[in-house]
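Input record (one chain):
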Amino acid sequence: MVSDSAGSPGESSPDAGRLAHLDEGWDRGLAVVAHPDDVEYGAASAVARWTAQGKWIGYVLASRGEAGIDGMDPADAGPLREAEQRTAAASVGVHDVEFLDHPDGHIVYGLDLRRDIAAAIRRWRPEVVFSLNYRLTFGGGGVNMADHRAVGLAVLDAARDAGNRWVFTELLDAGLEPWAGTRRACFAASPHPTHAVDVSQYVEAGIGSLACHRTYLAGLHSDVDPEAFLRENLAAAGEQAGVAAAVTFEVFDL
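The corresponding structure, as predicted from the sequence alone:
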């Protein structure tokens, strides 16, 4: 179900019309996204807040983003984008980064993807998982890309698969015991946010993390300045939460 509270289910937000603040009473979180840079377009500021609190955060990426740089052969782009992602992660205190090697641009929702994500959840044993919007559109109405939708939905399902020993029994053969300790799934950039994280003190950290994707950003054919885009989005989300800057999430209790 969707949680409607800042803490325990059933507890209302203190300010009517404002998003509830995400409960931070947990120690281990895992972000699972489709590509390098997906976390950095907003959620990295929340990651910086959490690692500063002493929480462990890990990243799992379904692909290496090898199809993301126009004019660069995927065989060259993949290793480069992996290196940029590791640097971006380290800049906000994340040192465990895993790549699942699904093909960029061809990620398909299905049993293979669910199995690989469930395996990662069993390996890292998070209390909370994070991903990117899995819905058809973003809040502004722009159409979401297929890889994001496939991975986000698979994260929601795999969080439960990870705790069921009779789903993907081959994971048991690989020594991955069930993990039913993931109690919440959170999706950034959803058009239907339910919660927010105050990142007023971590805007610069998030911008710095995005800036680590230098080659990727340089290859974008866009008139949009990534830093300005990020600042504007974080400020707009902050208005929904009653703070200077925020990251919003659509949150499901599992």
